[in-house]
Amino acid sequence: MVFSYFLWAIFALGATALPAPTFTFSSGAARPAEKQVLSEYFDMLGHKVQAGRKMSQAPVCNLKNAAQPIHSPTPLSGPSIGLTLKHVAIGRGTQNYTCGTNATAAPTAVGAVATLFNASCVASSYPDLLAILPNVALQFDLNLAPSSTLNLSPADLMLSGHHYFTNSSTPFFNLNTRNWKLGSGGFAKSDAMPAPAGASIGQNDQGFGAVPWLKLTARNGATGGLQEVYRVNTAGGNPPATCADHLGSSFDVQYAAEYISLPSTSKSTTTSTSISISISISTTTFPPNPAKPSPTHHTPH
User: Fold this and answer.
1) Where are the transmembrane segments (predicted)?
2) What are phi and psi of 81, to 5 degrees?
3) What is the pLDDT of residue 6?
């Protein structure tokens, strides 16, 4: 289901009564902080419903309208010249750590595992909703089995890939699923900034902070033209400061984030339309889009 059309269906229903949704929270039953997060989400959704009643047609899923969030006061380095926005996903999973026998040592990061859900249409039409979705998603349990086809609650986003590490320094993204074939490949960290103040520290507002925002660049062998990936709007994922409670063991910390994928653009298939993505105080303008839009521009999810 395309999120834009999910909202449009609500708009069209108007005052029709809908059954209350049921969700599985991380704690089984919603705790106060989780209720607050969900309340803010549905309050924003309610405003979209009111605005939607004045629409004559459903919002168009077009990534030309998407904007990358600004990291203040210091932004991540901008996308390289020649790239265009291809895919936006909400990643939900765990950051993975290990500890030795030194109680005062900091845990060692050994990778991450996340399921990716297609949020491209949300990015194009509802950037304010997109910005809070990682924190909303963090509050719910998630079936991380590779065979899972569950959508991401409560936005009903469809699965669009998987993220994991092939070794301690190579994050890998597989964006090839039965719904989309967007490419895959290993990446390397190019830039990093601490998560901004106010980022969710963890589930139920308990934890050790949000993992940093990142810019990743593709290693040799990436397919689908994938060149760069940004991890932004992070929620949770940081470990405790020391290994005191995890001596001689490995452990996971729940997290969620927004992932933005940028592939190269072929000059031979361009039009006069360009994409502008705000990445700092200034605006970076990318070269023209291909004449034939990528599947994420119009494919339902």
Assistant:
1) none
2) -65, 135
3) 43
Q: Decide: pTM greater than 0.85.
A: no
pLDDT score recorded for residue 192: 95
Q: List the domain range (segments joined by +) for residue 259.
A: 80-263
Total number of domains in the chain: 1
Residue 240 lies in a domain: yes
The torsion angle over the Cα atoms of residues 124, 126, 131 and 134, rounded to 10 degrees, is -90
In a domain, 174, yes or no: yes
Residues with Cβ within 8 Å of residue 190, at least 6 apart in sequence:
77, 214, 215, 216, 217, 228
Point out the residues of the chain with pLDDT beneath 70.
1-34, 48-60, 70-73, 142-149, 153, 265-301
Does residue 282 lie within any of the structural domains?
no
- Structure confidence at residue 202 (pLDDT): 94
Provide the token pair at 262: 């940028």
Phi, psi (deg, nearest 5) at residue 277: -120, 125
The Cα–Cα gap between 114 and 171 comes to 11
The answer to the question of residue 114 being in a domain is: yes
What is the structure's pLDDT at 54?
A: 64
